[in-house]
Specification:
By secondary structure, the chain is mainly β. Among the domains are: about 30-240, Immunoglobulin-like; about 310-495. It is about 5% helix and about 55% strand. It contains three helices and 47 strands. The protein has a 24-stranded antiparallel barrel. Strands 1, 4, 7, 8, 9, 10, 13, 14 and 15 form a nine-stranded mixed sheet that branches. Strands 2, 3, 5, 6, 11 and 12 form a six-stranded mixed sheet that branches. Strand 44 and strand 45 (about 700-710) form a beta hairpin. The longest helix has 25 residues, at about 5-25. It starts with a helix and ends with a strand. The relative contact order is 0.10.
Length: about 725
């Protein structure tokens, strides 16, 4: 397929899609999403509540409760098949939620996990979405399953921004009997940020999932257009008066000790440090860190790179994950702040001396300020990393943001200045979602003692419009990254390009169609890259999906057809001294993705992708399986294999990962993670025990081992570390 043929298909498809979109918008019907009562009244209660999930204190009988839940899935707008009841009480320093999840078949309740921060998509659960600022934007999501497992997320921009790694100080207890499962949740007010008003009004919503029925219940806003994070569609929590936020100062020292055994002389290590947090206001937090350490962090997943671009590795260090949403600002695919640039160089740890952070919200402004100093190591000089990010709420659901980053050492400095505007509404055509906006950034680099101007062609920008709704999803955008744009505290895997991108997907539902919950069609998914200087086509990724579905039982399938164009300007090494010559390549590929319902005892996902690959062919196979043996033990296995046939040679790549998780209870769990690939020829083992002796305090025991598997299996390195982090609330 030539570029001209692709352009003709794209033009024809876009015309047809636009006509279809207009037809659906004009003929769409409006759904009711609210029922009365839509306000929940909290009751003040001074007596002690025993956190056991039994809900036998007098307050739970006397408190106002809500029971009006409605199906979002499977039958939108239908009454719930199981009764749910929720009440709220509070004292000066804490808020309690009492939750009754009645179930006529309690032996069929699905609860596979018990560890902290579990993946709740496969379990029965209850989800609490609380917006303490009542701003229709930001809030906290708390999740509990029938085993008492807990998870929490900070949510921004009604789910368009979120931090799954946020960890609040709160607790929950669960009781199960012949009537169902029941939970008590306590959240100290010190965990939450809220306005200092005598009478609080919070946005709130609840979601209950009954997995065996594929039933999802919402208290308010049950349209499929919205998730529970869409807090503007929720209800209100009132009756909370004269509360105190409690803890103003939090001290979290740590002690660490361990050994490393290798072919060299054994080494022992000891380390102390910690964090000091205090609330400047009820909504702004100041954090100081000294001798910052990440010994408990799980190893990176090693990847075999079969592209000519760099690979992205996610941040795993809790210090940077907490509050990360206050520091993020992207120009589409370009991250202006990428925290892995701090304290990591080529997968090697660089010691962090310490630093400070200020983050939170002041009226309608989100504030994030950070400054971190790293120590010198080998040829790397001591370096300061700083970032300032501000985000202003405007209109009902929109925002304006700005960011400045700086990396400064004795040799040079690099700065990036960026700004963005996002317009968001959930009231298009009275109920539809629309997001539109853009961002721009400029970099500035100076090498001391050099006169060369490094600040030419140093801009990146993007504009986009997105229509994310249930039946139709559509996005259209354009972005540019100039050749000289250099975000040294950020991440971009390529430069000197312009990219046009668009995607259109239909997911219609048919009430009388057996087996299928909804069908999925994707006429177009296009990323079109041109060289920013020469304006020549550089890369094209074009995918369309003639058929896909999600079944009523939770299985899914996608069949995709891909057309990929790449034009490397120079030869590049693929792997094992295999060279891909410069030139123009059109690859046509076919892909099938299959996934079973994740709530089963055995769940699996598989992908097959076959077709042309530069000067040869490639078959790619991916498999992920998860085994749930009981409430305590879960095992996950993933495997990826590539068969590549090229004129020079044929080769095979394999990547394997395995994880065993065992939770003794919600506060004590252990896991073993193993990985291997036939390129690095190393086996990496990471074993961890995580104990929560009290809420907010942690003990970790970690064993890391590295084996050389090139000629047999030989142990090269063993590291054993124990680390205690203790929380003092002053």
């Amino acid at each position: 397929m030539s570029i001209n043929e692709l352009a003709a298909i794209f033009e024809k498809t876009m015309k047809q899609n636009l006509i279809f979109i207009l037809f659906l918008l004009l003929t769409s019907t409006l759904l009711g999403q609210h029922s009365k009562p839509d306000t929940l009244i909290a009751m003040f209660y001074e007596e002690q509540i025993k956190l056991d999930g039994q809900l036998n204190e007098p307050c739970w009988l006397n408190a106002s409760a809500i029971e009006n839940f409605t199906q979002r899935e499977q039958n939108e707008g239908a009454p719930a098949t199981e009764k749910t009841r929720i009440a709220v009480v509070y004292n000066t320093h804490e808020i309690y939620f009492g939750i009754w999840c009645f179930d006529k078949e309690p032996d069929k309740i699905s609860a596979q996990q018990m560890a902290r921060d579990f993946s709740w998509g496969s379990d029965d659960n209850i989800e609490l979405m609380i917006s303490t600022f009542n701003d229709n934007r930001n809030g906290y999501l708390f999740v509990v399953n029938p085993n008492g497992a807990k998870a929490d997320i900070w949510v921004g921009d009604e789910g368009n921004d979120f931090n799954i790694d946020w960890n609040g100080v709160w607790d929950a207890a669960v009781d199960r009997n012949e009537q169902g499962w029941f939970a008590e949740i306590v959240i100290p007010f010190s965990t939450l940020k809220f306005k200092k008003d005598s009478a609080q009004v919070w946005g709130i919503n609840f979601e209950r999932n009954i997995r065996r029925k594929k039933e999802q219940l919402m208290w308010q806003g049950w349209s499929r257009l919205y998730d529970v994070e869409k807090i503007s569609q929720g209800g209100k929590l009132v009756g909370i008066n004269n509360i105190k936020q409690g803890t103003k100062i939090e001290l979290k020292p740590y002690m660490l000790g361990g050994f490393e055994f290798s072919e060299e002389k054994p080494k022992n290590t000891g380390k102390i440090g910690g964090e000091l947090n205090f609330d400047i206001t009820s909504t702004l937090k100041m954090n100081f860190s000294a001798n910052t350490d990440f010994a408990q962090v799980e190893s990176d997943r090693e990847q075999i790179n079969l592209t000519r671009f760099s690979l992205y590795y996610p941040e795993k260090r809790q210090f940077f994950l907490e509050g990360k949403n206050y520091f993020d600002l992207n120009v589409d695919q370009v991250r202006l702040f990428y925290s892995r640039r701090i304290g990591i160089d080529q997968h090697t740890e660089v010691p962090i001396i310490g630093g400070m952070r200020l983050f939170g919200k002041l009226n309608k402004t989100n504030i994030g300020i950070m400054s971190i100093q790293t120590n010198a190591k080998d040829s790397i000089p001591t370096t300061n990393y700083s970032v300032i990010k501000l985000k202003q709420d405007v209109f009902k659901q929109s925002s304006f943001g700005m960011i400045v980053t700086q990396k400064y050492s004795k040799n040079q400095y690099n700065r990036v200045y960026g700004t963005s505007f996002i317009y968001s509404t959930s009231e298009l055509f009275k109920e539809k979602n629309l997001i539109a906006g853009g961002s721009i950034a400029v970099s500035e680099t100076k090498i001391f003692g050099e006169t060369e101007n490094l600040n030419k062609n140093n801009i990146s920008y993007d504009v986009f419009v997105c229509y994310p709704n249930d039946v139709i999803e559509y996005v259209l955008g354009f972005m540019t990254v100039e050749k000289g744009f250099n975000p040294e505290m950020g991440y971009t895997n390529r430069k000197n390009y312009q990219m046009f991108y668009t995607e259109l997907e239909f997911a219609p539902r048919f009430k009388n169609l057996p087996f299928f919950r909804n069908l999925i069609f994707k006429p177009i998914d296009l990323n079109y890259y041109i060289n920013d200087e020469t304006k020549e086509t550089e890369s094209i990724f074009y995918e369309w999906r003639p058929f896909g579905f999600v079944s009523k039982s939770g299985e899914s399938l996608e069949f995709n057809i891909q057309h990929i164009f790449d034009k490397p300007s120079e030869d590049f090494e693929l792997i094992d001294d295999v060279i891909i010559p410069a030139g123009s390549y059109w690859d046509n590929r076919f892909e099938i993705e299959i996934s079973s319902f994740q709530g089963r005892k055995i769940a699996a996902e598989a992908t097959i992708n076959v077709g042309e690959f530069y000067i040869g062919h490639r078959q790619e196979y991916e498999l992920y399986m998860r085994f749930n043996f009981n409430n305590h033990l879960n095992i996950g296995i993933d495997w990826e294999r590539n068969y590549i046939q090229l004129p020079q040679k044929s080769l095979t790549t394999d990547e394997f990962g395995g994880r065993i998780d065992y939770a003794f209870n919600p506060k004590l769990h252990t896991n073993l993670f193993a990985q291997w690939n036939n390129e690095d020829k190393n086996i990496l083992l990471n074993y961890r025990i995580n104990w929560i002796p009290k809420i907010g305090s942690y003990f970790y025991f970690v064993v890391n081992q590295e084996f050389n598997a090139e000629n047999g299996i030989k142990l090269e390195r063993t590291t054993i570390i124990g680390k205690l982090i203790w929380r003092f609330a002053l």
